[in-house]
Automatic annotation (TrEMBL):
It comes from Lentzea tibetensis. It comes from the Bacteria. PROSITE patterns: PROKAR_LIPOPROTEIN. Keywords: Signal. The lineage of its organism: Bacteria, Bacillati, Actinomycetota, Actinomycetes, Pseudonocardiales. This is ABC transporter substrate-binding protein. Residues 1-20 form the signal peptide. Residues 104-260 form the SsuA/THI5-like domain.
């Protein structure tokens, strides 16, 4: 009898626990921790707990308990698959994966997905680049003709490659970013075309050099947030709190860019110097939730390419984008100015971070950066300078310098630099600046 009573008590306890868990409203978030252009809806947002805090406050009003699950993926494709299966409610991914997401779920009609915000973007397309091994003799994309190039087919990095190649023919090896990076180092491919942060990571590690800067295309590239429409309709207040939390994370990144970069670096094992290149002040990525008209147009312009390679069918982009939830939370803007600024003219403002110092020092121009390095006699941990023509922020040690009539100018690619004069290394540029 005692054993029966004990078993009954355990069953009641177990049922009670199950009931409590069943009372919770589940919210499943799909994100890509190493795609650092989505951190305000992923890695940084998760670490800071802004969403959970807001849901806790929401629960005080609704009487409900919200249970958030975060699922990390390498690319947007598995997030889309899980959303189609109804297993992920909110996801973040790049522009091409977003369009593929919308196309594949449009067959579900109102049960499909909607894009509700932007995480980060670059108005010229600098988030995607093509890199080659340090010893490569290639100077332009045309030099890759007939060779193998690694890319994730259907990704923004793939799109940049195809558009930039023009008539140049290469063999595209469809590989995940990490596989492609290994293939590049082993010599199995001649180049790698990928999205943030792979190009910067490989160049910083001296495992690659930049061959083609996506900003040369002058076509916006972006990442954003997509939600299952049934979830948005059933839990509109939860979606609203997610967007508010995304805004919280965005404001934190703007106010404390180095701390934000350190958080993301720790969570992803990426070097903080690489994260800061993209997400810091004047960074390659501009973080703003607004569904700007220029970004909408960019998405529409991307559809024909994705159709041409068979990755999507027709997609009504205007229907896919739903800005109503965001309008209820934040005032949108068409301004393309990066809110995270170093100070001074963004076309020349630079930073240098010396070993042993807690943070980078801002300087007015790339030439001033060189002078400061000479004056201190210290080895820079890292330096950041904007390309003299297209403005892409890049590593001072890995840009190509030109002495243009006594003015030292940095360029992200050797081909661009060579058009302006004799190409100098960082050490050579330091020597010129010291004269």
């Amino acid at each position: 009898m005692r054993r029966l009573l004990l078993v009954s008590a355990l069953l009641v306890t177990a049922c009670g626990t199950g009931s409590a868990s069943g009372d919770a409203v589940p919210v499943v978030i799909g994100y890509q921790s190493k795609t650092i252009n989505t951190v305000t809806a992923g890695t940084l947002l998760r670490d800071k707990g802004f969403f959970e805090e807001r849901l806790k406050e929401l629960g005080k009003k609704t009487g409900k308990r919200y249970e958030v699950t975060w699922q990390d993926y390498d690319t947007g494709a598995p997030i889309t698959a899980q959303m189609i299966a109804g297993k992920i409610d909110i996801g973040s991914m790049g522009d091409y994966p977003l369009l593929i997401n919308g196309s594949r779920t449009q067959k579900q009609g109102d049960e499909g997905t909607r894009m509700v915000s932007v995480t980060g973007y670059n108005p010229r397309g600098a988030l995607n680049s093509v890199v080659v091994p340090p010893a490569s003799t290639a100077r332009t994309l045309a030099d890759l003709a007939g060779q193998k190039v690694s890319a994730s087919v259907g990704s923004a990095g793939h799109g940049t490659l195809v558009r930039a190649l023009g008539d140049t023919k290469v063999t595209v090896e469809n590989q995940q970013p990490s596989v492609g990076a290994s293939a590049l180092q082993s010599g199995n491919v001649a180049a790698l075309s990928q999205f943030v942060a792979w190009p910067g990571q490989l160049v910083f590690a001296k495992q690659a050099k930049l061959l083609y800067d996506g900003a040369a295309l002058n076509l916006p590239t972006l990442h954003g947030v997509v939600v299952r429409n049934p979830f948005a309709k059933q839990q509109p207040e939860v979606l609203a709190e997610f967007l508010r939390a995304q805004l919280d994370a965005t404001k934190f990144l703007h106010a404390k860019p180095l701390e934000a970069a350190e958080i993301v670096a720790k969570a992803t094992s990426l070097p903080v110097e690489v994260v800061y290149l993209y997400n810091g002040p004047n960074g390659i990525a501009t973080f703003d939730l607004s569904l700007k008209s220029v970004l909408r147009k960019a998405l529409k312009d991307d559809v024909p390419f994705l159709k041409s390679i068979g990755n999507i069918e027709e997609l009504d982009v205007d229907k896919f984008i739903d800005d109503q939830p965001l309008k209820a939370v934040v005032e949108s803007t068409e301004d393309l100015t990066n809110p995270a600024k170093i100070g001074g003219d963004p076309a020349t403002a630079s930073e240098v971070w010396f070993d042993g110092e807690p943070a980078p020092r801002p300087v007015a121009t790339p030439a001033e950066l060189l002078k400061l390095v000479n004056q201190t006699g210290k080895k820079p941990r890292v330096g950041y300078v904007p390309d003299a023509e297209i403005g892409t922020r890049w590593f001072a040690e890995h840009v190509f310098w030109v002495n243009d009539g006594g003015k030292l100018l940095p360029f992200t690619t050797e081909a661009a630099a060579a058009k302006r004069g004799a190409v100098l290394t960082f050490e050579q540029a330091l020597a010129v600046a010291g004269k």
